Amino acid sequence: MRVTYWVVAFPLALFSLYSGGLKVFRTRERLRPTMAWVDRTPMPAVRTIGVLEVLGAIGLVLPPLTGVAPGLALAAAVSFVLLQLGASAVHLSLGDRRIALNIALLLVAVAAVRPAMTWL
Q1: pTM of the model
Q2: Are 60 and 112 in contact (CB under 8 A)?
Q3: How many CB atoms lie within 10 A of CB 65?
Q4: What are the backbone dihedrals phi and psi of residue 92, each rounded to the nearest 5 degrees, phi first?
Q5: How many Å apart are CA 105 and CA 84, to the nearest integer?
Q6: Distance (Å, whole) CA 37 – CA 49
Q7: 100-116 vs 72-93: helix crossing angle, rounded to 10
Q8: What is the full per-residue pLDDT of the chain (120 aa) written as tens digits?
């Protein structure tokens, strides 16, 4: 079960670290080509989402690796499920029907929840 967790959680963590890092450090103008929703969202909220993604990525990887508070991996996986549900809702509410990536990330996050329970 632990191998399954790493196969699922590590790519999710890498993607989230990258995506969150972009939201934290890039300007609205540089985010706009790939994230059209940033025009309708205050930048402090975009930055907060980015920080939460980075923290979630760390929560998926560090606790199981170090053995310190490994239950945080489950909390991070569940948080990513909620994040993608919210992201899909935001995209749909703004009339953006391109949510394939959000659905894929949602499925990966859901797949990480059960194996993350091995550290409880």
Answers
A1: 0.92
A2: yes
A3: 11
A4: -65, -40
A5: 7
A6: 12
A7: 160
A8: 789 999 999 999 999 999 999 999 999 999 999 998 999 999 999 999 999 999 999 999 999 999 999 999 999 999 999 999 999 999 999 888 889 999 999 999 999 999 999 877
